[in-house]
Write a structure and sequence with these properties.
The longest helix is centred in the middle third of the chain and has 18 residues. The chain has 447 residues and is an alpha/beta fold. The radius of gyration is 23 Å and the shape is globular. The strands form five sheets. Strands 1-2-3-4-5-6-7 form a seven-stranded mixed beta sheet. Strands 8-9-10-11-14-15 form a six-stranded mixed beta sheet. A five-stranded parallel beta sheet has the order 16-20-19-17-18. It is built from 14 helices and 25 strands. A hairpin with a 2-residue loop joins strand 12 and strand 13. Helix 3 packs across helix 5.
Length: 447
């Protein structure tokens, strides 16, 4: 897409709800902003246009993915641009407020915009003296502002007040300046739902409720009220990004693991993660395994429910993309991949091993019984089955004692519900059923 003569290529990660950006600098070089460690799409986009990444800028120490800046520096010699106050432990050009760098015709100016993190920096892209757009990272996002509680409850309000002043500063830009946020719909960094991922300052002044609050206290109240839960792995990635992710020498590998090798790995504390569709897991799975179907949100739930130091063995079905599994794990720092069960569940059965099973059925085939809703709070509040027990998926393991055996486990379609059921099975519940559908389907069948 072109913005006033500047060619910009968004790189959208639908699963994490984030956007990275590539700017064509017009001379065969490119600027990358907030690139993920999973550089597959970015590499394809730059190769198609004959571009080499010469600059890699990070707006902040990301909590939801590992930065790809160090990898880009290793591969292309890209100059890493980031906040001077971030104390990054690797070679980079630290930029203080107002610092600029010549990109070869275009310029990049740093604006300190703390709030989402202490060292958060927005980058203004200038063509001569004209501000074309601003990479706002986790400060101003479409329809909102990113969460301020990632550094702990004792810092949340303080950072929310910083976020207020950062947004007020950004609002001083001309109305036609483009807004290019990192966090968008689907991000647990507190982006609201919606299809738009980019905007303009003027549109945000008119449509972003946090830019129309009458004062700082109201802003803080509204922002903090909007904060939901977030994946547990967010608490560790900021520091990993400060130190610098390890350089990768190739794509993540999932070597074959035999049934006998799996026995030994389990004895040493490995976890089995079944990435097959929910229906396949229901029909038969390795007892004690965790169901996380492979889809866009796979990394989020892996990082929320499994410790990063736990060796992982994946159960797959024929045709699933092994590289996708590996990249989703690696982009959030999950590198202890022991492999995947060779031959999948047929091999497990052929070895004479027992299987776990769980009922997975549409609402009309399920008797009316206790109903456990594992969707996020906002989804539940938007509409739910009357009398339902509500525990977010990320908290199910902590509240097993609150769940009666025999419940119907449900979400919006069935994937998260199957994940929750697999957790409950591991804790001894046996008479479970998983709804193949959502609350509307259940209500229609049990009026």
């Amino acid at each position: 897409m072109a913005f006033r003569g500047v060619e910009l290529i968004p790189i959208v990660d639908q699963g994490l709800g984030n956007s990275a950006y590539v700017v064509d600098l017009g001379d065969g070089r490119a600027l990358a902003v907030d690139a993920s460690r999973d550089l597959r799409t970015l590499r394809t986009a730059t190769a198609r246009r004959g571009l080499t990444v010469a600059f890699a800028a990070d707006t902040h120490l990301h909590a939801d993915f590992l930065s790809g800046a160090v990898q880009l520096h290793h591969e292309t010699g890209a100059q890493i641009l980031a906040s001077a106050s971030g104390r990054r432990a690797f070679d980079h050009s630290g930029m203080a407020d107002g610092d600029e760098i010549d990109l070869g015709g275009l310029r990049l100016r740093a604006w300190e915009t703390p709030g989402h993190t202490d060292e958060h920096t927005a980058f203004l892209l200038l063509d001569g003296d004209r501000e074309v757009g601003v990479f706002t990272g986790g400060s101003l996002i479409v329809g909102s502002a990113a969460r301020t509680d990632l550094l702990g409850a004792n810092r949340t309000e303080e950072l929310a007040r910083s976020q207020f002043h950062s947004l007020q500063r950004l609002a001083t830009l001309r109305d036609d300046v483009a807004v290019w946020p990192t966090h968008g719909a689907g991000s647990f960094c507190s982006a609201p739902p919606g299809a738009e991922r980019v905007s303009t300052i003027g549109d945000q002044k008119r449509g972003n409720p946090l830019l129309s609050t009458p004062d700082e206290d109201t802003f803080v109240q509204e922002l903090l009220h909007s904060l939901g839960s977030y994946p547990s792995y967010f608490r560790r990635l900021g520091e990993v990004n400060r130190i610098g992710p390890a350089v990768m020498t190739g794509a993540p590998q999932l070597p074959d693991v035999s049934v006998e090798q799996l026995d030994r790995l389990l004895a040493d504390g490995a976890a089995v993660v079944d990435v097959r569709p929910a229906a396949a897991f229901a029909c038969g799975h390795v007892p004690g395994s965790l169901s996380i179907p492979l889809r866009d949100q796979f990394a989020t739930w892996l990082g929320w429910l499994v410790d990063a130091e736990t060796p992982l063995v994946f159960v797959t079905e024929e045709g699933q993309d092994l590289f996708e599994i590996g990249w989703q794990a690696y982009k959030i720092g999950y590198e202890r991949i022991a492999g995947r069960l060779a031959g999948g569940m047929p091999a497990w059965q052929a070895a004479g091993r027992g299987q776990g099973r769980v009922t997975f059925a549409p609402a009309e085939r399920l008797a009316d019984r206790p109903y456990l809703d594992v969707r996020q709070d906002a989804e539940y509040q938007a509409g739910h089955v009357p009398g339902a027990l509500h525990i977010e998926l990320g908290a199910v393991a902590e509240h097993v004692d609150s769940v009666p055996d025999g419940v119907i486990v449900a979400c919006g379609h069935g994937e998260r519900a199957m994940t929750a059921a697999s957790l409950l099975l591991r804790h001894g519940l046996t008479e479970l059923a998983v709804l193949d559908g959502g609350p509307d389907d259940y209500l229609a069948a049990h009026r």
